[in-house]
Design brief:
- The complex is a heterotrimer of chains A (about 450), B (about 230) and C (about 775).
- Chain A is mainly alpha-helical and about 450 residues long.
- Chain A has helices spanning about 5-20, 20-50, 65-75, 80-85, 95-115, 145-165, 165-175, 180-190, 195-230, 240-270, 275-310, 315-320, 325-340, 340-345, 350-380, 395-415, 425-435.
- Helix content of chain C is about 30%, strand content about 20%.
- The longest helix of chain C is centred in the N-terminal third of the chain and has 14 residues, at about 140-150.
- Classes of the chains: A mainly alpha (about 450), B alpha+beta (about 230), C alpha/beta (about 775).
- Chains in contact: A-B, A-C, B-C.
- The structure holds ligand MGD (2 copies), iron/sulfur cluster (SF4) (5 copies) and molybdenum atom.
Chain lengths: ~450, ~230, ~775
Amino acid sequence: MATPNEAQINRDLLGPLFKTGPRYYIAVALFGALTSVVFIAWALQIMFGIGMSGKNRPSFWGLYITTFVFWIGISHAGTLISAILRVVQAEWRRPITRCAEAITTFALITGSLFPLIHLGRAWLFYWMVPYPNSRYLWPNFQSPLMWDFIAINTYLTGSVTYLYLPMIPDMAVARDKATGWRKKMYRTLALGWRGTEREWVRLEKAISIMALIIIPVAVSVHTIVSWDFAMTVMPMWHSTIFGPYFVVGAIFSGIAALLIAMVLIRKYFHLEHYLQPIHFDNLAKMLFAMSLLWFYFTFTEYLVTWYGNEAPEMPVFWSKISGRFAPLFWLMVTCNFLIPFPILAIKKLRTIPLIFFASSCILVGMWLERFLIIVPTLTHPFLPYNYGTYWPSLTEASIAAGTLGLFVLLYFLFAKFSPMISIWEYEEGLQVASKHAGDVHPGH
Amino acid sequence: MPQWGMTVDLDRCTGCEACVVACHAENNLPIVGPEQAAMGRTHQWIRIERYWEGEFPNIRARFMPVMCQQCDAAPCEPVCPVNATYHTPDGLNAQVYNRCVGTRFCANNCPYTVRYFTWFTPEWPSPLNEQLNPDVSIRSSGIMEKCTFCVQRIRRAQDTAKDETRAVRDGEIQPACAQACPAKVLVFGDMSDPDSQVSQLANSRRGYRLLEELGTRPRVVYLKEADA
Amino acid sequence: MKRRDFLKTGGIVGTAGLILDGCGKPQQLIPLLVSEDQFVPGEEGWVRTLCQQCAAGCGITVRVMQGESIRTIDGQQKRVKAVQAKKIEGNPEHPISMGGTCARGQAGVQALYHPDRVQTPLKLSGTRGSGQYQPITWKDAQQLLVTQLQQLQATPQAIAMLTGRPNRGTMGTIVERFAAGIGTTNVVSYDPFDPAPLRKAAELTTGVSRLPAVDFANANFLLSFNANLFETFLSPVRNIYSYGQFRQGRPGIRGKFVHAEPRLSQTAACADEWLPIKPGTEGLLALAMAHVIVNENLHDTDFVAQSTNGFAEWSAALADYAPEKIATQIDVPAAKIQRVAREFAQRRPSVAVGDSRDVASLTAIYALNALVGAYGRPGGIVFGPDETRGPATASTLRTESLEPKAKAPDILELLSAMSANQIKALLILDTNPVFTLPQGDALTKALSTVPFIASFASFLDETSVMADLILPSHVTLERWVDDVPEPGVGFSVRTLGQPAVEPRWDTRDPGDVLIDTAKALGGNAATAMPFENVAAAVKESFRSVHALQSGSTVDADFDAFYRKVTAAGGWWNAPAQTTADAGGQRAEGGGKAAARFNFVMPATPIAARAFAGDAAQMPFMLHLYPSAAFADGRVAHLPWLQEMPDPMTTVMWGSWVEINPETAHTLEIHEGDILTITSPQGSIELPAFLYPGLRPDVIAIPVGQGHTQYGRYASRGVNPLRLAGSSLDPASGAVVQSGVRVSAVKTGRHESLIRFGASDARGHHEHPLHR
Ligand SMILES: Nc1nc2c(c(=O)[nH]1)N[C@H]1C(S)=C(S)[C@@H](COP(=O)(O)OP(=O)(O)OC[C@H]3O[C@@H](n4cnc5c(=O)[nH]c(N)nc54)[C@H](O)[C@@H]3O)O[C@H]1N2
Ligand SMILES: Nc1nc2c(c(=O)[nH]1)N[C@H]1C(S)=C(S)[C@@H](COP(=O)(O)OP(=O)(O)OC[C@H]3O[C@@H](n4cnc5c(=O)[nH]c(N)nc54)[C@H](O)[C@@H]3O)O[C@H]1N2
Ligand code: SF4
Ligand code: SF4
Ligand code: SF4
Ligand code: SF4
Ligand code: SF4
Ligand SMILES: [Mo]
């Protein structure tokens, strides 16, 4: 396969921005409809009360927080992976950074809707914002939810910046091609980029700094999300390894989400030249490592609980291993380990379709993992008289499922707005590759 | 500053649930109806936990009244993002209804599962509303609530005592559950006064605290079944 | 006297009866008025009265406050200021309640403000049972009643009155006098859990036809046979109070409690030991224990020698009841019977209490008390003065000529009389037999043949929907009431209750309606009713206790005395000691202990109760028990009680059938599986509850749910009384439910029980209870 030249690259990568087929509109309509389900259901829930969800005492949290943690996990796809790969100067990162970073941003936006959706009085969400007021009312900075709030906002700001910085030269390319209001828009977003040496140096520096900053932020975000649970006294929540366990789970599901996005983008935007099997193979190896790590953490967590045999923890433990939640638990193990392990371990099986399949399983498995962390503990509190059950309601399920629509919709709209592969980074990669002959070339 | 506390004499309790209904009556607890009750959404600020022990024919059942334990180190408090649940200087775990945004985090972190959430706007078909106690706020939809140790009664008694320029007398304050209980299971009073009835009972060798190993330092002391 | 002074001297504040309508025109309302300047919104007041949610007779205190109420005045919705009842507490000075209440008592205020109360007099506009009525005025309603009764003046026996457990206060006198005045002896009272057998057994053994008061607060050992002390048995609040004292009220003494019953009831759950006896073998168990005690000479020989009759023959007859002989019938190991019997005899003061429909079994249980000398001693059976109708009633109001001449019929006789068209007019007061009588359907049919039925119901229930005329009653908190609790506490108690609030709706006191009707009828009826109204009659009834010039209130001036009694919620003559001790006076005031105890062994040997039905097809014995929340169903309309978790099953808003988990396992029955329960009398369908504390050969169902009328909250669950038969018990003269066998078959359908507590809540060794 021939290496594409600059003109071809511009055409291929900018093409989707300016050419829109009917399939795109159908998809946008479909995911738009799914998104509107979220907002209709939410409106009803606000109107009638949070009781529209299936939650109860003792299961005060359910699908919303599960899906919240899930999306925040997905958000680790991008920024973190792209930053790590940038910092270690992994050349094969170049075609995937943009789609990865976009996932982060949209998963964060989608995910951070849930703490609002889940509030009993959602219209008062801003009380969690520390803003000056005449009553000297401040939020409680001791609460992990406040840390969440701050961490997620920081991560979102960081991620948007980190997504945006490398977009500047591409915005300039788009500016040069676009007409009308879009030209105006791209001109504004390009910040007057002219491509001078000084601009390039500064951009590279800024990106490098952001990459360094975003790594600890990303790690902290999911650590803090884990503390929503680990900081409590509840059986099987109060665990010291929840921080790293959640971060590993987040990166695990993040890579899976990234792989899925890459497969779809590659197929529907015809970017087979750019997203090549080597990229999938490398990411799949990372996914394999995360699957092993995930299994290790899960195994440790459950082994220690079982061996410790503490009275309040055992009912939660057994409800997952052999009780009411066992089918979900073993499905989770299957999805997160038993299926991905051979597919990702055996070179022959690491094909794009199978990687896609394994990644899809992992997303299901990781969603289940969050559900199985939240609900079994809540339904088995300390005093056995208060054991309960939980069934999500239609409202709840529509909202949780509908946010998939929101995420995809945002992603689709973004694909119309920005090249999904960073043009300049890709081109830079080609130059680097030709300088270091013998390096693995993206196009073999 | 008095430090309020309560003792629960398990040896006296018959599980009759007069306390349960009394709390409903005093504290404007909503009735949610069968459909919501089936979903686990009733409000019982005090509940009588019933535990089976043994197998037929050598079986027993035991009753344990459980209300908010007014923990000195209350796990529900630090997790609230808006400070809607906090500690009063006299040792109550207080709930500010109009500050609560309904995250339900506090309920998740209460080891005693004594927090109850208002899932929908409560209704009292007229004229049932005429019974509502004006001393206690009606909680609107989306708010967390729980046993307050009948704070309205505490404050009323304190006001009366202040008007009469005297201290609140031991036994003067009776939460609704304690007042209703025919068996005198529940004794309320000032734990910081070593001579109060509640202190004496709490310090008896029958006293223990529920899940005290969690370090929550509850203000409710249970008295186990044993010779006095 | 000025009203304001009245309040001050009465020691109660602000039961204001001032209603200001929209035009500011003050309407004065009974009972207690305060001047306008004393009207402070939000100000609280306390009114003492009587709880009538069950027949125990607890004195209560009602918290009232002035507030706003939306009322319809002259056809317009108006906001008015009104005194409102907020909360019911026990009356701390009242010897029965001792400041406590039960759950049902707490809910009394919801009867007052129930949205489905009958608000005005109603005249039937649809067919009977349809519940279609049109509002009429009290004047028309009263006229209608008078006209109907006038038509029957020549044949007064065609008029019948149907009531619940006879009222022990002035209201009882009014009913009795009304009937006597119009010339009918057909005053029928029916109560599905009539304590008549207990009263009869007391009469046979002690000569006192009254429910015995058990002072177990001061006992060291309590032995209970079937008595659901803490749910519904006679005086639950007093029982629960006593239990608290019994366990932890006496330094250094902790009473021991053994309870025998086929089902581990809430009461049994409190016991140190539960004896799961076969249904209907309580008498056998008592005799087996008596055998042990007498055989081993463990009885109180002094008491038996000095204060009893017939011990020799009786103890000789015990030979047939040796534990070894009858243990299998009872299904409790003989060794266990012996051990408990010895402990009962040795850990004196001990006392036995029993509930049974069988008089002979009860005499056996009472005999155990005689064996341990429990009669008339602290921690035993105590007696008070005979005041079932109040001293004043007997002495000043009742006249010989009005004493009923014939025995009142029972409800089954009334049923056949109605079916035979002998009853032309029926007045129903304070009872709902269509719901509570096992033959309720037959009763409905019989009622439909009665030409005129008037009901004094506050709610349209299954019986009152058969009425042509509804004369809606005040609820307790709106009435003047008086009462003499039975069982009492060993000294005189007269409870007095005043209206806590003005009537919420256009209702009346049924006593006032009867008084006015009697006056309108004229003649004998009018003469028999020498009262102005109920309030005056109640007041008059206190003259005799006033005359005693002793007890809790003493004042030379009767009006002053009555004010104080009103404020206190009654009058009682407790001995000088603290009340708990006072319970145990051997003889006090007018209350003489039974002169002697008679050991009576029935002519036919006591046997296990018979259960109708073929054991092969109907393998289970049916155990019906009044539910803790609803008793016989009379309070099933109150939402607080519907949402109160059942203490044992934690079920809310429904009813269920209890089955032993092992039995359920063999029949592959799971919780919530709907079972068809069939008895010889009929069949019902109910969801199953696997009840670990139930004999495998028994099926238990709570009574109280299954209303088809009675307001929006009551139509839950199934009424199991239909499964039982009922018949006249010749020994006690009461209509009691008969024992039946049942089968339980899965329907294949499922209905999840609405539960508050988890199904698998078991204590285990790590459990906090065991710390
Ligand atoms: N849960 C909860 N508690 C709160 C608040 C809240 O929002 N939620 N808000 C707080 C705030 S901001 C405030 S200001 C306080 C208010 O609390 P309080 O000062 O207790 O206010 P009120 O209960 O309105 O009035 C007190 C009493 O004054 C009486 N009164 C009325 N007029 C007069 C008069 O002319 N003379 C006299 N001597 N008495 C009169 C009333 O009958 C009443 O009994 O509550 C505070 N407490
Ligand atoms: N009907 C009636 N009116 C009254 C009174 C009364 O008793 N009854 N009392 C009078 C008195 S004394 C007072 S002080 C005033 C008080 O009147 P308001 O100032 O209206 O007092 P609240 O209703 O207690 O609280 C105001 C709002 O603050 C919200 N809130 C809580 N936390 C926060 C936060 O962090 N940020 C923001 N922005 N809002 C928050 C609450 O939900 C509530 O909606 O009312 C006066 N008016
Ligand atoms: S009222 Fe008293 S005896 Fe009854 S359940 Fe409550 S605490 Fe126990
Ligand atoms: S019992 Fe629960 S709600 Fe009450 S103070 Fe303790 S943790 Fe908080
Ligand atoms: S539910 Fe209310 S009180 Fe509880 S943590 Fe959330 S905001 Fe605070
Ligand atoms: S102390 Fe008051 S609020 Fe708490 S359970 Fe008792 S009655 Fe309810
Ligand atoms: S036992 Fe309960 S229902 Fe009966 S009179 Fe007493 S308080 Fe009322
Ligand atoms: Mo205020």
